[in-house]
Each structure stands twice: as C-alpha cells, then as structure tokens.
Amino acid sequence: MQYEIRALSADHLMMHLTIDAYDEADARSQIEARGLFAAAVTPTRRPLFGTFGAKTGGAARLSLVLFSQELLALLNAGLSIVECLEALLEEGSAALCTVLTRLLSGLRDGKRFSSVLAEQADLFPPLYVGIVRAAEGTSDLPQSLTRFIDYQQRIDSVRSKIISAAIYPLILLIVGGGVSLFLIAYVVPRFSEVYRGAGREMPWLSQLLLNWGQFAAAHTTLLLSAIGIGLSLLAVTLRHFFAHGGVVTLLAKIPGVGERTRIYELSRLYLTLGMLLEGGIPIVAAMETAIGIVSSGIKTGLQAASASIQSGAPLSSAFECNGLTTPISLRMLRVGERSGELGKMLTQSAAFYDGELSRWIDRFTRTFEPLLMAAIGLVVGTIVVLLYMPIFDLAGSLS
Fold it and tell me: In whole angstroms, what is the distance from residue 202 CA to residue 189 CA?
C-alpha cells in the first residue's frame, strides 16, 4: 500500500514523499531508516475500480525473472548477497527500492535470505523461497537462480503461445460482431423505411430481419446498455474463473481440448518438480511446494501420490495410480528412478509435453481460424442477402 509522508530532514527541511509499505508502522520505520522524522503519514487514495485492475504496490511491478537475472549476474561477478542487494538498490525503481530495503534490513538483522524472502509472500512465492532455502544448504545460489530463470521462461513461452493463438480469433469475433451489430442497428432500419413504402409483401425471413432492425433502432440505448452490462458481467465471471482455477476445469470438459489441458498441467507439474529435485529438495517437500501451483484436479492426485510415496511406493507407481502420467512419461520416470536422475527425467518429460502442446496449438489455430472466418462471413452474408431479397423479387416482377 502507498503512503504519502510529510517528513522533516536533519537540516530542518520539510519533505513530501510517497513510499510503499505494509502499514503505517512500516512506513514510519522506512522513513526513520533514511534519517528523517515522519511528521504525518497518510494512505494514498485508491481508484474506485482499483480492485479490478493490477495489484497495487510493489507486487505488480516486481518481475521475479528480471530480479533473478540481475542478482545472478552480480553473484557471478563475485559479490556477496548483501553487496548485490545494495548495488540493485542504487539503480532500482521506487517500488524495487522498497523491497530491497526490507530484504537488506532482514539480512543485517542476521536472518537467512530465504527467511526475509518468505516475509514478503505477496512478492516471492513459496516455490521461489523453496529453491533459495535449498541453495542455502548447498551454498549454490547462482545455480538455483539459473534453474528458476530457465523454469519461468519455459512456462512463459508456453503461456505466450496460448495467448497469441487466442488473440486473432478474439479480434475476428469483435470485428464480426461489430459489423453485424452495425448492419442490424443502422442499415436494416433504413431498408425497412424503403420497403414500407413499396406496399409489397416480403419474404418471411426478410420481414423478420426488418422487424429486428426496427426494434434495434427504436431501443438503441437499451440494447447498448444491455451489451455493456453483459460484457461487464462476462469480464467479472472470467476473472472469478481465473482466480479460482475454474477455466482449467471448464476446458477439461471440452472434447479434444480437455486432454491438451491435462498435458499442459502435467508439463507444469513435471517442470516444477524437476527444478526442485535438481536443486536438492526432497521429493515429498517438492510435491508439497508444487501443490500450490496446480489445478484442483491435479492437486487431489498429487496429494494422494505424496501419501503413497511416504508409505514407501516409488514415484512412478504413485503417479501412475493417481492419473499423473502418460505412457511415455511413465517410462521416463522409471528410467530416472533406475539411473538416479529423476529430476532430469522430469524436466525432459516436461520438455516433451511442451513440444507436443506447441504442435497441437499450431494445428488447432490453422484449422479454427478459417472456420471462424467462414462462420462470420456466413452471418454477415446472410444479413445482406435477406436485405436484398425483396429487391430481387421486385426486379423479377418488373421484368
């Protein structure tokens, strides 16, 4: 949360500052750490619809990948973790400086780096804290950061492909819907005025279309308001579905798409477990960390598999019994158990899934986009043909 501060400096000058803090006490402690005296601390006003936008504060502006890349570069240069954070503090933005100040304060108090990261759970997820905690035990933080950067970039790559595949169909739907709405609300009423004075009986479908056009022209404001309310409700519903994992559940019920959704979930699970195992985290602890990033269906199977492993079952058998494998990944897991490189095999299984998913997305978009264009063209063409059918009848009678 942001606070507006009126502070007094050591040379008795009044200053006005805006900082990010958890609460008023945190804001005052940050001001005192700068050698200033806080005369007044006031929370900034949030916009009315701020809850529907991006997260306020530093959480929305902190990129874990960028932060990890900068920290990794400084660590590889031979700096200690405190020196790295101090260097980043000198060059960082206001939001990042607030985060770094808290991290440095915790380290100077004698806390572990993973502990001070865990204190800011809204910025650093349990997965990130887990790999840092494991790296503290092996004194290999640069390697762990490298694994996390590669992990996040691979997940972002698959997600960007899915988003890119959805952009073009969405544009087609918006343009096609806009053209259809313009024809019905503007063009059709003009034609109805012309046909009304002709005194001829029109085809039934054309008459139905003209009636719709007249209704739209007479209630334009009402229709636009209804469309706006409908889009707002749709946006709120989608936001709720995304927040509670309902989109994955809905997609899983669509024939053909459900299996690909499951493959995407398994790929993310395997990639996460592979990174954690390669970082030195035990398999049960890795599964407990991964539970927070999977959907409800995968979570139930993962919890049951964790219980089986604690009872002495091998990972491949536990995953097979709880529907967390495919024939190919099951073979790769068994090979990883025999060779002692289970983390590597999990990562390779995720790479195989990612490649299969990318190929399916390409095939799906190449098939779906032409079909969508044809459907939109059919709707617009039907409206135009129905508009001109009375004219064709009139031309036929005159000839």
Answer: 15
Per DSSP, what are the bridge partners of residue 5? 17, 41
- CA–CA separation, 179 vs 381, rounded Å? 11
Indicate the class that CATH gives domain 58-150. mainly alpha
What is the H or E stretch that residue 65 is in? helix 64-76
- With b meaning 16 or more CB within 10 Å and e meaning fewer, what string describes 15-38? eebebbbeeeebbbebbeeeebeb
**Residue ranges of the chain with per-residue pLDDT less than 50:** 46-60
CATH fit for domain 166-399, picks 1.20.81.30, 1.10.443.10, 2.60.120.970, 3.40.190.10: 1.20.81.30
Domain layout of the chain by residue ranges: 2-45, 58-150, 166-399
Distance, in Å, from the CA atom of 213 to the CA atom of 86, rounded to the nearest integer, reads 67
**pLDDT tens for each residue of 115-127:** 888 888 778 888 8
**58-150 against 166-399: fold identical:** yes
Instruction: Name the token pair of 194.
Output: 């012309």
Q: Phi and psi dihedrals of 92, rounded to 5? A: -80, 165
| Helix 342-398 and helix 188-196, axial crossing angle in degrees, nearest 10 | 20
Round to whole Å and give the CA distance between 310 and 345: 21
β-pair partners for 42:
4
8-state DSSP, 40:
E
Distances (CA, A) of 33 to 87, 99, 147, 344: 18, 14, 35, 46
- The dihedral built from the CA positions of residue 137, 140, 142 and 146, taken in this order, carries a sign that is negative
Per-residue pLDDT reduced to its tens digit, 323-332:
888 888 889 9
Let me know if 258 is exposed, middle or buried by CB neighbors in 10 A (0-12, 13-18, 19+).
middle
Enter the tokens of residue 377: 């063209």
pLDDT digits (tens, 9 = 90+) for 301-316: 888 998 999 888 888 8
Sheet strands (E) in the chain: 2-8, 14-20, 37-43
- Rounded to whole angstroms, the Cα distance separating 389 from 382 reads 10
